[in-house]
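User: I'll paste a sequence; please echo it back and then give the predicted structure.

Assistant: Echoing your sequence first, then the prediction.
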Amino acid sequence: SVTPFGGTWSGTGVANWYWASYDPAAAGPGTHTITYTLNGCAATVDVTVTEIDAGSNYVICPEEPPIQLNGTPTGGTWTGIGVSPSGLYDPSNVPSLTNDTLTYAVGGCTDTRVVYVQQTTIQWSNLEFCLYDNALTLDWAGIHRYPGGGTWTGPGIDNNGAGHFTPAVAGGGTHTLYYEANTCLDSTVMIVHENT
């Protein structure tokens, strides 16, 4: 509060000159001088706005070892499923396929980040092909794999877009393909029959 009442407020972040409402998001980080003026007299106060940053969202495998989360500024406290107050995040303590919202708090201010706990899974295996069948797109529709954005390795594989398995490039026989996404790994088997 201020006395005497009836003056005007000005400065970076002042949202209402009469009622002295202040918008820290509009002011931005840093120290801002706010001025109160009445009848030609003025008084100032410095307001420091600290930006809190919990970091960007993250995808993690439930089998990964614990990771250390770091917020800005340092010295804050973390809360949420699977995270210690100091920021040690253990995905094994979180159910798979969880979108885990974590909160980082410093001095009464907070920011959040989402950790997506996703097991890499290929649901279809032992698919059979003739040698000159068309390439199979290795996406959800083609092979029921999750999540997207990973990398395939193995015979007959390319990583264009979602990835493809081409039987003629792999050749006849039984082939094990590996899919790695968010540091998790799964495999599937493709059986290619020679055309006779």
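The chain has a mean pLDDT of 91. The two ends are 91 Å apart (CA to CA).
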